[in-house]
Amino acid sequence: MLLSPDQTRSLYEHAVQNHYAILAVNADSPAAIVDCLHAAKECDAPIIIETSLWQLQGHSFGAGDPILGMDRYLADLRVLANHPRFAEVPVIYHTDHIKGAGTLPILKHAMKSRASSISLDSSDLTPAENIDHLCELCDFAGSHALSATLEMEAGVDDGVTALAETKALFGEVETRHPGFLALWAPGVGTQHGLGEVNGFSTTAIQEHQQLASDLAGRPIGIALHGSSGLSNSQLADAVESGVAKVNWSSESLLIRSQAAADYYRHYGERLTKEHPDFKPTAMDNGLQTYIASGYQMRVVERIRTLNGADFGKPFLSTLT
Ligand SMILES: [Zn+2]
Predict the structure, then answer these.
(1) 212 Cα: distance to centroid of ligand 1 (angstroms)
(2) Does residue 259 belong to any structural domain of this protein?
(3) Average pLDDT estimate for 139-158
(4) Ligand 1 centre and the CA of 41: distance in Å?
């Protein structure tokens, strides 16, 4: 089931208290969404489906218009997540890496559309702008009687964030608008992309998780960006240290695109008008079923690495 913002805040707290992290897949096609929900169901885990600006504007959804893209994406996800097949899978829809001039209009639209949780890309913002953007979203929620659950970030690709920055950024938004923040994404030595990771620090995760929770007076999980370059043991250590949400994009794209290349290498010869299997090979279903056969397993494996398995139904039983 697709979770409301309030249910999502409870789930993030549940993850912190039970020492697991929820896998957040940057799913960039309808078939990727289906695969992720099947994988979560298979291991009774909550799952986050997230979109960045590039999916919302991309050809399969908004075709240049991010608001249209969000409406199409969320309509598809809502129908699927609320189908009886996935009634026992807690599903979060999260906006990830929204940036540029359209940031606030897109995120306000997400809030009106009852997106489960929200974050923005702060890499081009000054600290003051970062704070102001989040405060404006909190004000918008207040003036429109909407609930909102927020992730705030700072310098996720810039090495390890100083604790003073957590006080200055996270602490300021929490002081001005208590209760909206649920996740904090400081730099902990990871990098977006598939490169090698140097300087990854579980101590930083522990310290930031403790400080953010102290500032808020409630459990705050760390959101880990740039997880693709980490080993399984590094991921498990990150979860043990206080990570509650693990973003997964580059490696997921690599697995899916390599499977697609493999499919066309194996079956490309059928793509002629004479071949009897031309149609089933050429149709989207042929390719997507082939990709799913390997991809779903990898999603399950990653959920298990994050200790996320077997928490789906127990979490839903806590909702009133
Ligand atoms: Zn990220």
Answers:
(1) 19
(2) no
(3) 93
(4) 25
How many independent structural domains does the chain possess? Answer: 1
Beta bridge pairs of residue 264 = none
Per-residue pLDDT tens for 5-25?
A: 999 999 999 999 999 999 999
Question: pLDDT by residue (tens digit) across 34-44?
Answer: 999 999 999 99
Residue 247 Cα to ligand 1 middle (Å): 6
The CATH number covering residue 175 comes to 3.20.20.70
Please name the residue ranges forming H helices in the chain: 5-18, 30-42, 53-57, 66-81, 103-112, 127-143, 163-176, 202-216, 232-240, 250-267, 278-282, 284-305, 312-316
Ligand 1 centroid to 120 CA: how many Å? 10
Indicate whether 282 belongs to any domain. no
Residue 284 included in any domain? no
Q: What is the pLDDT of residue 128?
A: 97
Residues 21 and 239: beta-carbon distance below 8 Å: yes
Distance 248 CA to ligand 1 centre (A): 8
- Report CA(227)–ligand 1 centroid distance (Å): 9
How far is the centre of ligand 1, averaged over its atoms, from the C-alpha of 121 (Å)?
8
pLDDT at 198: 76
CA of 225 from ligand 1 middle (Å) equals: 4
Whether pTM > 0.90 for this model: the answer is yes
Q: Looking at the domain assignment, is residue 22 inside a domain?
A: yes
CA 207 to centroid of chain Cα atoms: 23
Domain of residue 25 covers: 5-251+296-317
Looking up tokens 């897109």 gives: 106
